[in-house]
Specification:
70% of the residues lie in helices and 0% in strands. It is mainly α.
């Protein structure tokens, strides 16, 4: 089991690697450059990650670990629709706090990188809270019947699209803060599923 210091060092190295990837692209990412950016020798970097592929896998895992933790921190309340919105807010906050990891998690920041089956499974698990949130809205009669996975996909597509626009500086100037536009988009995304009276 890794010590607290090893866990902290790995998180620091992952963040440095993500920064280098964001600033210089895949060609600017190497274990030696990550070690230099973090101010450590190359030995712990090679010990932790082995090679560049291992580093990318660790970055992918850490990004989804952070996303999963952000979503898990949203406490369920008696209002499932408010809880669903809170999950959307947590998703955006996780993306904004680790923007370069987000690009690796959901983009093609490193086209040749392919996460392992186990890492893909762990990533897919972060989608389940959204599906569960939709199912709770359906059970409460807030949303109409239907496959909660399909509704969740629609909601995630809107959230993901808005986050990508914001991270890439492509949100149109509409006289409102990015967070306000995001929350508004989430509201519009949910309207087709609201149960009719």
């Amino acid at each position: 089991m890794a010590s607290v210091n090893e866990v902290r060092l790995e998180a620091r190295l992952v963040d440095e690697a993500a920064r280098l990837l964001g600033e210089h692209g895949p060609a600017g990412l190497s274990l030696r450059k990550v070690a230099a950016a973090a101010g450590v020798s190359t030995m712990p970097v090679y010990t932790l990650f082995g090679d560049k592929e291992g580093l990318l896998a660790a970055m992918h895992r850490e990004g989804f670990r952070r996303l999963g933790a952000a979503l898990a921190a949203v406490p369920p309340t008696a209002d499932p629709l408010a809880d669903l919105a809170a999950l959307g807010i947590a998703y955006r906050q996780a993306a904004l706090s680790s923007p370069h990891l987000y690009g690796l998690m959901f983009g093609r920041a490193v086209p040749q990188f392919q996460p392992s089956a186990a890492d893909r499974e762990a990533a897919d698990a972060t989608y389940q809270p959204l599906v569960d949130g939709v199912a709770r809205c359906q059970q409460a009669g807030v949303f109409g019947a239907g496959d909660p996975r399909r509704v969740a996909l629609h909601l995630w597509a809107v959230a993901h699209g808005m986050v990508n626009l914001e991270l890439n500086g492509q949100l149109p100037e509409l006289g409102a803060a990015a967070e306000e536009l995001y929350v508004e988009a989430l509201g519009y995304a949910g309207l087709p599923f609201v149960a009719t009276m």
